[in-house]
Amino acid sequence: MNTPTNLKYANNDEWINAEGVVGVSDYAQDQLSDVVYVEISVAVGDQVKKGDTIATIESVKAAADVYAPASGVVAAINEDLSNTPEIVNSDPYGAAWLIKIDVSDSAEVKALMDAAAYETYCSGRQH
Amino acid sequence: MAEALIYELSVPGRQGLRFPACDTPLADLPQDMLRQELPLPEVSEVDVVRHYTRLSRLNYAIDLGMYPLGSCTMKYNPKINEEVARFNGFAGAHPLQPIETVQGCLALMFTLQEWLKEIGGFAGVTLQPAAGAHGELTGVLMMRAYHQARGDLRRDKILIPDSAHGTNPATSAMTGLRVVEVKSDGRGNIDLEALKAQCDDTLAGIMLTNPNTLGLFEENVQTVVQMVHQAGGLVYGDGANLNALLGIVRPGDLGFDVMHINLHKTFSTPHGGGGPGSGPVGVSAALLDFLPAPLIAIVEPGTPDGDPPLYGFSTPAKSIGRVKSFNGQFGMVVRAFTYILMHGPEGLRAISEYAVLNANYLLSKIKGVYPLPYDRTCMHEFVVEGHLPGSDVHALDIAKRLMDYNFHPPTNYFPLIVREALMIEPTETESKASLDAFADALLKIAEEARSQPELLKSAPHNTPVGRVDEVKAAKELVLCCGIDVPRE
Predict the structure, then answer these.
(1) Which of B394, B413, B418 sits opposite A127 (nearest CB)?
(2) pLDDT digits over B387-437, tens only?
(3) Which distant-in-sequence residues (6+ apart) come within 8 Å of B280 by Cβ?
(4) Alpha carbons A10 and A87: distance in angstroms, whole number
(5) Which residues of B touch A126 (CB under 8 A)?
(6) How many other β-carbons are positioned within 10 Å of the β-carbon of residue B200?
(7) Is the dihedral of CA B20, B21, B25, B26 positive or negative?
(8) In this structure, is residue B48 part of a structural domain?
(9) Residue B147: which domain range?
(10) Considering the domain boundaries, does residue B369 fall inside one?
(11) A-B C-beta contacts closer than 8 Å
C-alpha cells in the first residue's frame, strides 16, 4: 500500500495536501476495486463543511461516498474524472484528485492523520 | 456465445403465427400515432421453442443444485405450492368479484394475516406490498405518519447500521428521511455508544436487521430497542433474515414496531427470475391505525350454529392508503399459506433450527481455511473473507471458480464491513451430503488458490460463458438486442 508522507488522511480514506487538493487513498481504491463511475456532487464556489459528501465513487463492487476532510470553499473540481474514472485506480494521488478546497481552518487539516498513523489505522481494520 | 440472440435467429419473412382476419370494425387511429415498422424477430414457433429451451438448459436454478446466496434464503420451493396456487378457485378468481363469491380467497388471506401476526408477534399485518423493499417503504411511511399524527414534526432522522441491506438507506431516503449510519462494534453488533450519540428528539427510528447481515444475532437487541424507544423513535425490523427465528423468537416480543416479511425468502414462494416477490408488513399496536387499506377482515361474524363468518375489507382509521393495486401478490399469498399449513408450528420451528444447524455445520468445515472476521456461533448464514493467506486471489475469483464445481456462488462483497466478503446461506433444505460437497469444493478451491491461482483468476471454465468483463459492462451500457432503438 502506497501512502505518501506529504499528505494528511481522514478516517474515511480521503487525502488532502497542503494546497487543499483532495482525493482518495490507495487503500480506498484497492478496497473498491475497479472504479467505473465518479460523480462530484459539489461545484466551484460551494461552501463545504468537514464531513459533507463531496463525491460518490462507484466500482464493480460497491458505491462509496467521499467526504470533505476539511471545511472551506470549493476552488476547483476535476472535470476529467467522469470520462476516465479508472484513473482512481491507477493514479489515486495524482491525476485522480477530486476537488481543491480553500481551507478555512488549517487546524482541521493539522488534526488529520499523517501517513504513519493512517497506515496503522488501515492495518487495524483488515477485516 | 453459447446461444445466439433471438434477433440473430431472425430470417426475413419467417413467421410463427398468422392472425385471423379482423372481424371487428377498424378503429380510426390518428396517422401520426401509427407506425409502419415493427422490428420484432422473424422466427417460427419451433425456432422460439428451441431457443428458449436451450437457454433454460444453460440456466442454474435451485431445482438443479445448491444456491447458497447469503441474505436471499434461496431455499427449495415445494411443488405443492404450485399445485395449490393453480386450483381453479384461486387462479380463476378476479379481485373485483363481489366478496360473497370469493369467500375462500378472502378467508385464506385473512388466515395468512393472522398467522403472520402470530409468527412475528404483531398486532396487525398487511399483505399488500409487492416485495421486500416495497414492504420497507410501506413500513417507513407508517413510521413517518405516526410521528406526524402526533404533531412530532422534528423527527426526520433514521439510523441505519453499517451492516444493513442497501435497500434500507434507499427506502429511508425515498420517504424524505435523513439517513445516518451507525457503526458496528468488534463483535458485529451495533455500537451502543455510537447509537447513544444519535438518540435525540429528531430520531424517527432505526432500521435493524436481526440476525444482522453478518448472520449474527444482535446480542444487545433489547437494549437497542429500549434506547430508540426512550428517545421517542420507532424500531423497523428488516425481516429478510426471519428464516433464522421461526417459532423461536418473535420480533414483536423484542419490541419491534414494524417489520416486513419476505414470503419469497422465508415462506418458499419463488425468488429470483421475477418472482414475483411478496412483502407483507407486520406492525405493533402503536401503528395499527396506519396500516395500508384495505385490510382483509371479518365483516359479519359467524353464528354459533355453524354459519361461517363473512370476510371482506376494512380501512384503518389513519391509513397511509393503498400501496398496491388490488390485494398484493395473491398467488404468492396462496403459496405461503400452503407452506405454513404443511409445516405447522413445530415444522416452522424445525425450519429455523435446521437452517441454523446447516449454516454452523458448513462454517465449522471451512473455518480455519477461510478467515472468519467475527468468530461467533452464526445463525442461518455467515460471512467469511474471500482472500487466503499466501495467495492473491479475491472473493470474486473464488465465487467464479465455484461455478466450475456446479454451485451457484454465494453473495460476495456484501456486507461492506467485511473485506472480500463471501456471504453464505445454505438454508434448511440442503442435506448433509450437499453441504459436504459444497464445503469440499470451497476447500479444494482454497488449495487451488495457492497452487494454481491462474485457474481461479480466469474462472469460470466449465460454463457457457467464461469470465465477463464487469468493468466494461458497468461503463458501456449498451443493450445489444439487434435492433436500432432510438436513444435520447
Answers:
(1) B418
(2) 998 899 999 999 999 999 999 999 999 998 898 999 999 999 999 999 999
(3) B112, B113, B116, B125, B126, B127, B128, B129, B135, B260, B261, B263, B328
(4) 21
(5) 419
(6) 13
(7) positive
(8) no
(9) 80-341
(10) no
(11) 24
% of chain B beyond a pLDDT of 70: 98
Number of residues in chain A: 127
Cis, peptide link before residue A69, omega less than 30° from 0 = no
pLDDT of residue B487: 45
> How many domains are there within chain B?
1
* Nearest-neighbour CA in chain B from A31: distance (Å): 8
Mean pLDDT of A74-99: 96
CATH number of the domain at B136, please.
3.40.640.10
Task: Choose the closest CB to A62 out of B373, B394, B413.
Answer: B413
Q: What residue spans define the domains of chain A? A: 8-104
What pLDDT shows up at residue B36? Answer: 84
pLDDT tens per residue, range B291-348: 999 999 999 999 999 899 999 999 999 999 999 999 999 999 999 999 999 999 999 9
Task: Confirm whether B437 is domain-assigned.
Answer: no
Question: How far apart are alpha carbons B374 and A30 in whole angstroms?
Answer: 22
Per the CB < 8 A criterion, the answer to whether B453 and B376 are in contact is no
Residues 6+ apart with CB under 8 A from B32: none
Q: How many CA atoms lie within 13 A of B480 on its CB side?
A: 6
- Topology adopted by domain A8-104: OB fold (Dihydrolipoamide Acetyltransferase, E2P) (2.40.50)
* B479 lies in some domain: no
Query: Rounded to two decimals, what is the model's pTM?
Result: 0.89
